[in-house]
Amino acid sequence: xxxxxxxxxxxxxxxxxxxxxxxxxxxxxxxxxxxxxxxxxxxxxxxxxxxxxxxxxxxxxxxxxxxxxxxxxxxxxxxxxxxxxxxxxxxxxxxxxxxxxxxxxxxxxxxxxxxxxxxxxxxxxxxxxxxxxxxxxxxxxxxxxxxxxxxxxxxxxxxxxxxxxxxxxxxxxxxxxxxxxxxxxxxxxxxxxxxxxxxxxxxxxxxxxxxxxxxxxxxxxxxxxxxxxxxxxxxxxxxxxxxxxxxxxxxxxxxxxxxxxxxxxxxxxxxxxxxxxxxxxxxxxxxxxxxxxxxxxxxxxxxxxxxxxxxxxxxxxxxxxxxxxxxxxxxxxxxxxxxxxxxxxxxxxxxxxxxxxxxxxxxxxxxxxxxxxxxxxxxxxxxxxxxxxxxxxxxxxxxxxxxxxxxxxxxxxxxxxxxxxxxxxxxxxxxxxxxxxxxxxxxxxxxxxxxxxxxxxxxxxxxxxxxxxxxxxxxxxxxxxxxxxxxxxxxxxxxxxxxxxxxxxxxxxxxxxxxxxxxxxxxxxxxxxxxxxxxxxxxxxxxxxxxxxxxxxxxxxxxxxxxxxxxxxxxxxxxxxxxxxxxxxxxxxxxxxxxxxxxxxxxxxxxxxxxxxxxxxxxxxxxxxxxxxxxxxxxxxxxxxxxxxxxxxxxxxxxxxxxxxxxx
Length: 664
Known about the structure:
By secondary structure, this protein is of the alpha/beta class. The chain is built from 33 helices and eight strands.
């Protein structure tokens, strides 16, 4: 037992261990203080917070309640108790805690952010947005509030906005788009609503066939909007009408260059650069006429032969082809410094970053030669078009893996244990690395990533290097080769991967052999019912003899963009993947894919003696629960099968779910 005089010294040491996530040493020291002084306020508070971090909710609640008994005006204790109640699914109690925390400390940003989270859980989305906005007003750099409001904007469509609301929201969306730690595609649709009211959008629809869009006042205004520029730079333009407008404007700007109209080029320069970034981002899926292609070929030759750098010409060329497509232009621009920072960003995006990926290719280890014939075809597709191309993603908020899994499989719940305090994680099929950034949320994780495509891995490694992430090991390999890996993992995630194998069950068997007995496996597999419209669209592709070349992909996209009746095509252009070359190739032109029904999935799980823990983050769970109230955990696949038959769009992405081995 420590002496009273040493309490401060012990508390400081406990705090240091706590900050370094050395939970056991911190716990022992806090408890040693409480043996001497059971009413030591901060030790009770910190111990309650620590147990919340490791998901020991019973102890967390006990110590936080004790802290509040000692100091009834302890705002942070109320806030952290609210976190415990959220994890216990007691949302109304959590709401009371956050409101009390705010009452005590009106500018407590954390409580406003957490209140936004619980209001979202309670279905009070508008109030949730207001609460997040309040947190951001107090601290414009509040990462959780910024992340959560961005995710909420993906789910909630803003409508009936007053002029005053539009101005406030425009300011908020400018703040969000200027950040490089969110997924800008999530906020695109609401940003579009703020930028283009219904009246403006209807007018756009009328003028899209106009001879000269650049002469229209409404076009001039939007091309000067900072928010529109940022949308072009950081999010895919997921709108058929806007794509038509942009394609037409690009054509007119090219014509301005041909006709030496310097006024147009000068006034639209920032927009031209932004459009060049958009076109690189979407991998040049916009339609190009033969006339435009002819002019662009001439422009490329001219730039290669010119001694001086003409930034207008470079920006326009970058709207049609990647600047790194020409080795001569790439060398000219590699060390070029413009007075315009956005132009420098364009050089970085289209020249320096691809060059860095080429350099990284040699640093990535290969397990063995890929021998499976289907795997070779899949690898070649992703070598040509690494998927998905992305710029920015959410910054991680590390938490205990059990907390994360429970949040996804709710209302089901798994018990905590210390085997996940330092988890070994395998991402089997990481693509271009977006999945790595999601896995960074696992506290103290060591991450091992595998993919067929070296080009995809190089993209992923560039992104992790840029952010200084050093807990990731990369390997090029076929999942089928991993049976010889001689490693075990606590967590394995393979989302959107196995269904691209000739025999997905064979791949599943390999992954299960790599999983620790106590481990968890997350899978993502295509639904046969949800993807029925894909099958119909593929018939159209086959009928028109479209191949997976860039020209055929562009031509097919024009059929979809101009269609006004086909329901299957409507579903296609509502998908984010429609708005990039790699996306639509993955969605509709893939060399191999399998589909499943839930009764088939159930049989596979039974054959492998696996426990289904629940679907991850599914918005339809509330609707399911109303119909199947006896299934308290939402895990009966027979019921889910019936539900999907009645609601065929439930799993339009894929079946995304957690499983584990049943230990006898």
